[in-house]
Design goal:
- The complex is a heterodimer of chains A (271) and B (546).
- Chain A is mostly beta strands.
- Chain A has a single domain, classed as Glutamate synthase, alpha subunit, C-terminal domain (Pectate Lyase C-like, 3 Solenoid).
- Chain A is 7% helix and 28% strand.
- Chain A is built from three helices and 17 strands.
- In chain A, the strands form two sheets. In chain A, strands 5-1-6-8-9-10-11-12-13-14-17-16-15 form a 13-stranded mixed sheet. A four-stranded mixed sheet of chain A has the order 4-3-2-7, with no helix packed on it.
- In chain A, a hairpin with a 7-residue loop joins β16 and β17.
- Chain A starts with a strand and ends with a strand.
- Chain B is globular.
- Chain B has one domain: TIM Barrel (Alpha-Beta Barrel).
- The two termini of chain B are 41 Å apart.
- In chain B, strands 8, 11, 12, 13, 14, 15, 18, 22, 27 and 28 form a ten-stranded parallel sheet that branches.
- In chain B, α6 packs across α8, α9 packs parallel to α10 and α10 packs parallel to α12.
- Chain B is of the alpha/beta class.
- Helices cover 32% and strands 22% of the residues of chain B.
- Classes of the chains: A mainly beta (271), B alpha/beta (546).
- At the A-B interface, loops of A face α2 of B.
Chain lengths: 271, 546
């Protein structure tokens, strides 16, 4: 186990893609202390900013308000990062395996272009979660992202596979140009959800303002949701799947692209 | 003072073919003898004149638009970190300005010709060329869809057109004239193209692409510009365009011209399903037209970004790829289209394109008339030139690559039957001596007394991880060592070659009112002031028009 304790909030964002289990797994305490980070354009050492305990481990704990520490867990393939506090942008971007858990808030670009692994943030997150970076054709390719609180714009933009589940309210353009995968919105979203979506599923447990390019298809309980519900229950996230309680209204779109995606909106019995 | 001793020198312009001899340098020039100063021991190395790229796109509005359109490429690109001798930058498909200079010099190329500049964005182009270090630069002005010029050609006022062209050349501070899809870009503004050489196109009553080509070639010859008309023929990339290309050569009879990226103009068939190589037919016609030079515009498999003033073609390519497309309108002068593209060896069309570029270089018999380019970044990036050199020099390597192509593709090309191998002497011609001569740069592309000391020194045995020309051991630019032990160690800013053709001083009175009527900017803001160029070098022209 490696424990990093932030000494103070850096004055400008700190780029710290070395904070990854793949990097620390084989390093001594001294070597971890000497890892390079960038404060603006200046190269500095990890121990300029963190107290470092432990060595040679793929289990990392980061303590303190790391809201200005970017790129934690970048491209990690294994291991575990636990952050007690907040984290900066690009958490777990390009990751393909392992787990990241954050007790505080995340920022923009959580799990951007990730292809595997699990990211769980208890607090709020920013925009572009699991999204494609600007210009890229494909965002998240697989894996799971769970956000307890709210999220910003363009959640799951161009995602192709995997699951994003968000407990709190989400802003505009969730599932923008989505190509596959599943986004679950426990508290709904603001405008233009699923704009330009080609394939994939957006599930909202609250009513959504739908674009006119989505057409009502059916009210039903698709069997596949039973599998999702079981998977998410294991992660502590409840997806209703009980015909005594209600059913999902299915809307297809975005017909302006034209796409074959779907938005499922939970319709409780008696509502 | 500097001496290079013991290297095998390849200097085709002076008939030197692999002779071990010393080269002496003083004050940036090659001299007969030099005493004192540093000596570079080049034993076991090949000494070449610095490479000259006759057709590339490295600066200006269109290229910058392309850089913005492909941030995903920039993220994956090679990074150049800021250092004592170097500015920061990114390599990749569309390198940033500083990186462009480092990448060219790092490969042994020391002169580049930016092949497409509209007058309206010439200032931007010169700013970027200034920030492209080490290499010397020149650029060509887009003329074949300029409405002022076309209107004069339509009216048959060739003499006044000549004055306008000359005025525009000096206004933009450029080196020569480029024609892209003559008439086609003007027609594109109505959503049309100009695909028949002898038929009129949208917006004009009697003017045809053939008349534009003939008119501009005549004007360039009359102005005695050092570089002939640089022509991107009509119907680029279209199956069956071999007919247009051969017809264009007939239109150009009796005139000098340079046919750009000929690979994209040598296809047979009448659709994508039966497109095949017509390199043999194009090379045959080209071999007979000794008034012409060309560059290959070769394609390499992998990522590319296509950038051209040929707007209608780019729209077609966008419809084929279905991904990104950028389209620019440059007022009354030209247009531009950008489409990121991946050449795949499993694609029959791409495999044919790959083969055609190599076939042309092998089938055109005179190496002094065909030059190595990829039409960077259209067919592949310039920093991949050493791969093409390898393909030209090693027939077994080449045939191995051909055998990997899909069976159906192999039946559409003739590359597998060609056994010609380029010698080092010929490589020095197509990469340096030939393009320098075609550009009319008498101090470039050779190692004779008085030449600019632009020299690339390559190890005779390539690094195991590279091709023969990938990593020069030393590169000299104007006698200064800019690459040492394979590392770029800085260097000067490089010059810009420009020409000042003669024009009637009264022509401005003709252009000004017309300009004020049809352009969105003020006439006085149009020309590029000479002071804007940091290191201009005016190449002198004969005193009177022919």
């Amino acid at each position: 186990m490696i424990t990093l304790t932030l000494k103070e909030l850096p004055s400008v964002p700190l780029e710290a893609e070395v904070l990854s289990p793949d990097v620390t797994a084989g390093l001594s305490n001294d070597a971890i202390r000497a890892l390079p980070v960038y404060l603006g354009k200046r190269q500095r050492r990890i121990d300029d900013f963190f107290d470092v305990d432990g060595s040679s481990s793929d289990q990392i704990t980061i303590q303190g308000d790391a809201a200005r520490v970017k790129w934690i867990g970048r491209a990690m393939t294994r291991g575990h990062i636990r952050i007690t506090g907040n984290t900066g942008m690009h958490l777990g971007a390009y990751m393909s395996g392992g787990t990241i858990e954050v007790s505080g808030n995340g920022a923009d670009w959580v799990g951007a272009e990730m292809s595997g692994g699990l990211i769980r943030i208890d607090g709020n997150a920013g925009g572009q979660i699991g999204a494609a970076y600007r210009g890229s054709s494909t965002g998240m390719r697989d894996g799971t992202i769970l956000i307890g609180g709210s999220a910003g714009l363009e959640v799951g933009m161009r995602m192709k596979r995997g699951v994003i589940a968000i407990g709190g309210p989400v802003r505009d353009f969730a599932g923008l140009q989505m190509k596959g995968g599943t986004i679950i919105l426990a508290s709904g979203a603001e405008l233009r959800t699923g704009a330009w979506m080609m394939r994939g599923t957006i599930i909202s447990l609250r009513p959504l303002p739908l674009m006119p390019t989505f057409a009502y298809a059916a009210t039903y309980l698709p069997d596949v949701l039973r599998i999702y519900a079981a998977y998410l229950r294991g992660l502590g996230f409840t997806l209703p799947f009980d015909q005594q309680q209600g059913a999902y209204q299915r809307y297809t779109g975005d017909t302006s692209v034209p796409g074959k995606g779907e938005i499922l909106i939970w319709n409780p019995r008696g509502a | 003072m500097l001496r290079i001793t013991g290297g095998k020198v390849y200097d085709p312009a002076n008939g030197v073919d692999g002779v071990i001899q010393d080269i002496c340098i003083d004050q940036g020039r090659i001299v007969a003898s030099a005493e004192g100063g540093r000596t570079i021991d080049a034993r076991g190395m090949l000494v070449f004149p610095g490479g000259v790229d006759v057709h590339t796109h490295v600066a200006g509005g269109a290229l910058n638009f392309a850089r913005g359109l492909v941030p995903e490429n920039q993220r994956a690109a090679r990074k150049f970190l800021h250092g004592k001798d170097r500015r920061a930058g990114l390599g990749g498909m569309t390198p940033t300005t500083f990186a462009t200079g480092y990448l060219y010099a790092g490969m042994g190329w020391t002169t580049v010709n930016e092949a497409a500049v509209p007058v309206l964005t010439a200032k931007h182009t010169h700013e970027e060329l200034h920030d492209t270090p080490i290499v010397d630069k020149s650029c060509l002005l887009l003329m074949a869809n300029n409405e002022m010029v076309l209107d004069l050609l339509e009216a048959g006022e060739i003499e006044r057109a000549r004055h306008v062209v000359a005025w525009l050349i000096w206004a933009a501070k450029v080196y020569g004239v480029k024609a892209v899809n003559p008439g086609g870009v003007a027609a594109w503004k109505w959503g049309k193209n100009a695909s028949a050489l002898h038929e009129t196109f949208e917006g004009y009553q009697s003017l045809t692409p053939a008349k534009i080509i003939a008119g501009l070639a005549q004007i360039v010859d009359e102005l005695q510009l050092p570089h002939p008309l640089h022509l991107h023929c009509n119907n680029l990339g279209v199956p069956g365009n071999v007919a247009t290309t051969v017809e264009t050569m007939q239109v150009l009879e009796g005139r000098r011209a340079h046919l750009a990226h000929l690979q994209f103009h040598a296809y047979g068939g009448d659709g994508w399903s039966n497109m095949h190589s017509e390199a043999a037919a194009v090379a045959d016609a080209f071999n007979r037209h000794t008034n012409l030079t060309c560059d290959a515009g070769a394609v390499l498999f992998g990522d590319a970004v296509t950038i051209t003033a040929d707007g209608p073609w780019q729209h077609l390519l966008y419809q084929l790829t279905g991904r990104k497309w950028g389209n620019l309108d440059v007022e009354n002068e030209t247009g531009c289209g950008i489409v990121p593209y991946v050449y795949k060896d499993r694609s029959l069309v791409n495999a044919v394109q790959w083969a055609v570029g190599l076939e042309l270089m092998l089938l055109i018999t005179d190496p002094w008339r065909v030059f190595l380019t990829t039409d960077h970044p259209n067919g592949g990036c310039f920093w991949r030139y050493p791969e093409i050199v390898q393909l030209l020099m090693d027939v077994e390597f080449r045939k191995e690559q051909v055998r990997r192509l899909p069976e159906a593709a192999q039946q559409r090309i003739v590359l597998g039957d060609l056994d010609r191998q380029y010698s080092l002497f010929e490589i020095a011609i197509i990469t340096s001596a030939g393009p320098a001569r075609a550009l009319g740069l008498s101090n470039k592309g050779h190692l004779g007394i008085g030449a600019d000391a632009d020299i690339a020194i390559y190890p005779e045995q390539p690094d195991p991880d590279g091709f023969l020309f990938s990593y020069p051991r030393y590169v000299l630019k104007d006698g200064e060592i800019v690459v040492e032990e394979g590392e770029v160690i800085g260097g000067s800013e490089g010059r810009e070659f420009i020409v000042r053709p003669q024009f009637d001083a009264g022509i401005e009175a003709y252009i000004r009112p017309l300009f004020q009527q049809i352009y969105t900017i003020s006439f006085d803001n149009y020309p590029v002031a000479l002071e804007r160029l940091r290191h201009p070098e005016q190449v002198t022209l004969p005193s009177k028009p022919a």
